[in-house]
Design a protein that fits this description.
Elements lengths: L16 H21 L2 E2 L5 E3 H7 L5 H6 L2 E3 L5 E4 L4 H10 L8 E10 L11 E10 L4 H17 L5 E7 L3 H21 L4 H6 L13 H8 L10 H17 L4 E2 L11 E9 L7 E7 L3 H4 L7 E7 H10 L12 E4 L3 H13 L4 E3 L6 H11 L3 E5 L3 E6 L5 E5 L3 H10 L1
Helix pairs in contact: 1-5, 1-11, 5-9
Length: 417
Amino acid sequence: MASSRIYAPRGTQDGLPGEIRMKRFVESVFMEHCRCYGYNEAHTPVFEYSELFERGVGPVTDIVEKEMYTFTDKHGDRLALRPEGTAGLARIIIEHDMAKELPLKLSYKITCYRQENPEEGRLREFHQIGAECYGSSRPQADSEIITLAYTALRAMGINKLSLNINSLGCHDCRTGYINALVRYLLPHANSGALCPTCVSRMSRSPLRVMDCKNPSCREVAKKAPKLADFLCDDCRAHYQGVKASLDAVGIAYNEKNHLIRGLDYYNRTVFEFKAGDGGANGTVCGGGRYDGLCRELGGPDIPAVGFAIGEERAIIAMRESGMDEIPPMKPLVYVASDVPSRASRGAARLRGLGVYAERDLMGLDLEAQFAAAGEYGARWLVITAENGIILKNIETGDESAMAAGSWDEVARIISDK
């Protein structure tokens, strides 16, 4: 028999006030850093044509093969809920012809959907904030993006961060690496050391094997050839330039030769930030360069680099760093009266002047309203009567009498102090 209770769907979580305060803090810190770096906010729809992600993210990825929420609408169009932000942002750049003035620097905060196994920090409905720079192929653009992510994460209160970087090279030098990788993987596939998914991917996208979470596959990946050994001169110079730029701004990094990230559009630089002990679920930010994405989607050939931060992952890392919560905002003033309509008028007037004001909604007598002002944590108490207003500083106990209707003066005094 089905339960009569109603629950949130598996892999989702409710936005309770304390959690929302943490999310808004994360977003406000990030967007303020984006402002300082010149990244303007853009939005994409929560659903797109499935083809966008199949072509952009790549058909041989976990997102497309296993995780996308897809559906067919009443017109027969195949649509997908947004699983990530980069493909959609590339689409709006193409569709709205935004590449006339480069570099183009954009940021976003979005809700994403992936049908994967829920665990701590990994949900089916989750939130991302990100930034992307279009138009520059120089390593300094990579360094700026990484620096933006680093400074924003630190400003959120995440103390223990580690940066992992690698270069995937370009199409030409990656071809030589893939040939060597397949030769290395083939005996392991024949011996059963690789999972069935990795065996099937070897002929279509062998790099995906390096990103598999299966323990046996991870052991095989540890001894695989290193991509850095196959980089062409241009890609090697670019990678050296990224490292030199990070050195110049004082950001430490670890070179991870088998870091590839999980999406097909990446080339050259890839990176991730891990928090805490750097475990499997410790990745709070991932990104890299995707120079061919716009071209792959039918647009101009524009180099690009960017990243996304998982808000839920960031909040877990903040709490592990000691920031358990963002306290609720306290009212500046509590308006009390033994006549409810007077309190209503006074609170409405102060709120209209930009003051956070509270008043009684529970039918309390005047003495109980005075107590409520303290429980709310208000700094000021206003007692409004027929013939005037009494303004009291709750911290000092100082009182002053004012004429009835002097709400502009009340707002000025309490805001100045």
